[in-house]
Amino acid sequence: MTTDDDGADEGASPFTELMGEVMATAERFGHRQHVHLTWLAVRRYGTNAAVDLISSGIQRTARYAGVPQKYNATVSRAWVELVGHHVGQTDTADFDAFAHQHPALLDKKLLTRFYRPSTLADTRARWGWVEPDLAPFPWQRADRSHQQAFRSSSPT
Questions:
Q1: Which of 57, 59, 78, 130 could be cross-linked to 71 through a Cys-Cys bond (beta carbons 3.0 to 4.6 Å apart)?
Q2: What's the pLDDT score for residue 141?
Q3: What pLDDT shows up at residue 140?
Q4: 38-51 residue pLDDT tens
């Protein structure tokens, strides 16, 4: 049995269990596996809990690998929220089918549709949440359209 830096039992952690499930059929942990891990976390725990689960797991893994600077809080949360948004639009219980339905999630550069590279590289994004600065996320566009429609239909 091993423990992480916080003294938690890694063998029993949900992140470790999900990682084991993803890696059981993978030769390496690439972007597709990262999306698969996130999909599993969102389906089992919900998007909000998955943000914390995935973010802390990746941060812990980067620290353990000796590359804590590779962790980026905004990138981690943005990916979980993007996957969560798409999970909410489908009822498939098969990751391959999900990936086929949402191929943009397999594009490692997807976040560049929403963020400038300099924004993601900034210290604020590395250690906390930063809103997209190029375009809103899909669910934010829907929220803004709804708010604009509400404002235009409200009596003045």
A1: 59
A2: 76
A3: 86
A4: 999 999 999 999 99
Q: Where are the alpha helices (DSSP H) in the chain?
A: 14-23, 31-45, 47-64, 73-87, 95-101, 117-121, 123-127, 138-153
- Is residue 23 within 8 Å of 33, Cβ to Cβ? yes
Q: How far is CA 42 from CA 16, 31, 88, 141, 150, in A?
A: 15, 16, 9, 22, 31
Integer Cα distance of 151 and 58 in angstroms = 41
Give the HSE-up count for residue 73: Cα atoms under 13 Å, Cβ half-sphere.
Answer: 11
What is the average pLDDT score of the chain? Answer: 87
Task: For residue 99, give both structure tokens.
Answer: 């990936």
Q: Which of 132, 117, 22 is nearest to 77 (CA)?
A: 132
d(CA 35, CA 83): 7
Is 145 a residue whose pLDDT tops 50? no
